[in-house]
Specification:
It is found in: Plastid, Chloroplast. It holds the Pfam family NAD_binding_1. Keywords: FAD, Flavoprotein, NADP, Oxidoreductase. The protein has 3 domains: 2-68, no CATH class; 82-212, Translation factors (Elongation Factor Tu (Ef-tu), domain 3, Beta Barrel); 225-374, Nucleotide-binding domain of ferredoxin-NADP reductase (FNR) module (Rossmann fold, 3-Layer(aba) Sandwich), CATH 3.40.50.80. 23% of the residues lie in helices and 26% in strands. It contains 9 helices and 15 strands. It has helices at residues 2-11, 22-29, 192-198, 236-247, 274-283, 308-313, 316-323, 337-352, 357-366, and strands at residues 49-57, 60-68, 99-108, 118-124, 136-140, 154-157, 171-177, 180-182, 188-190, 205-212, 225-231, 258-265, 288-294, 328-334, 370-374. A 6-stranded antiparallel beta sheet has the order 6-5-10-3-4-7, with helices on one face. Strands 13-12-11-14-15 form a 5-stranded parallel beta sheet. The longest helix is centred in the last third of the chain and has 16 residues, at 337-352. The chain is globular.
């Protein structure tokens, strides 16, 4: 079966869209971790231009697909709950009967000097695991635990838009950091699921459950202000958001608002999907703002390390003004520690204008304007 899948992946080169250059095909073909190419969907009339950018890091290859879309008439959309959409799928597959997908691509996306390894991986779904930007899937690692019971599933935020990295609605992507740590006994411990995923090779099987989650779904208003706060692999759902906004063309959605991403990482070599985001910023400077917080390399005017809340403090007044608009939505994903720092920034600003931040934030949550998924 594995041989058949690999053969099918290689055969897909025959239907590579004409916009994919020979150098791209050669680069992908020469990389063992990338044995599948973009499908022909992107050669249809719905897309103005597709550029596939391959960034080589040592022996790894990162694939980014950038779609430049046509201009459409802006449409105002009535604010409504995104969580009540009848077309939203949840728990299509459960742990006892998971969907068995195949790994198509698994690539390390940080530099060799980065603290830890982070990988971008793409799995087949055959369109049977329909998901929305902001949802998660579960992965059930093979084998049993110390008690001889099957491993429990681990949830991961989906790192692709609904059409998937290849645009055919038949794949799902994850952004996973390999967990390795030393316990109290001095023993090196490897996270069961993260190491299983980071070690996957093309054609390997993956047991998938879900999709799940409604907290991080995108707003339906194409004119919204969307503030995204991420640390490390917490960038995953926002990559899906931003692909939908800037890399894809949809008949029923054209983003005309403001997307503002704050990404916090320890080193510049840990800036995930940097090339993609910088391209978006260059192509849509009026609609996309991008700010990095690199804690081990940057500091503010006071000499303090540049964490995500430190970077946000530089724009505190502007952010507070945005938060007072009913079409502003905040999404936070990543390490739990950043939430406290952000609350500290907003508390003073709210008090100055006669608000109690804790109460104001509750109202934002009630209106689905403050959305948090931290760990």
């Amino acid at each position: 079966m594995a041989t058949a899948v690999a053969a099918a992946a290689v055969a897909s080169a025959a239907v590579t869209p004409p916009c994919c250059t020979s150098s791209l095909v050669a680069a992908i073909s020469s990389t063992s971790s990338a044995q599948t190419l973009l499908p022909p969907r992107y050669s249809t009339s719905r897309v103005s231009l597709l550029k596939s950018v391959v960034t080589l890091h040592s022996n790894t290859t990162t694939i980014q697909a950038a779609i430049v879309t046509e201009t459409e008439t802006t449409k105002k959309v009535k604010k409504e709950s995104r969580k009540n959409d009848e077309g939203l799928s949840t728990n299509v597959f459960k742990p006892k009967e998971p969907y068995i997908g195949r790994c198509l691509l698994n690539t390390k996306i940080v530099g060799d000097d980065a603290p830890g390894e982070t990988w971008h991986m793409v799995f087949t779904t055959e369109g049977k695991v329909p998901y929305r930007e902001g949802q998660s899937i579960g992965v059930v690692p093979p084998g049993t635990d110390a008690n001889g019971k099957p491993h429990k599933l681990r949830l991961y935020s989906i790192a692709s838009s609904a059409p998937g990295d290849f645009g055919d609605y038949k794949t799902v992507s994850l952004c996973v950091k390999r967990l390795v740590y030393t316990n109290d006994k001095g023993e090196v411990v490897k996270g069961v699921c993260s190491n299983f995923l980071c070690d996957l090779k093309p054609a390997d099987k993956v047991a998938i459950t879900g999709p799940v989650g409604k907290e991080m779904l995108m707003p339906t208003d194409p004119n919204a202000n969307i503030i995204m706060l991420a640390t490390g692999t917490g960038i995953a759902p926002f990559r899906g958001f931003l692909w939908r906004m800037f890399f894809e063309k949809h008949d029923d959605y054209k983003f005309n608002g403001l997307a503002w991403l704050f990404l916090g990482v320890p080193t510049s070599s840990s800036l995930l999907y940097r090339e993609e985001f910088e391209k978006m910023q260059g192509d849509y400077p009026e609609n996309f703002r991008l700010d990095f917080a690199v804690s081990r390399e940057q500091s503010n005017a006071k000499g303090e390390k540049m964490y995500i809340q430190t970077r946000m403090a530089e724009y505190a007044e502007e952010l507070w003004q945005l938060l007072q608009k009913d079409n502003t939505f905040v999404y936070m994903c990543g390490l739990k520690g950043m939430e406290k720092g952000i609350d500290e920034i907003m508390t003073g600003l709210a008090e100055r204008d006669g608000y109690v931040w804790a109460d104001y934030k509750k109202q934002l949550k009630k209106g689905e304007q403050w959305n948090v998924e931290v760990y």
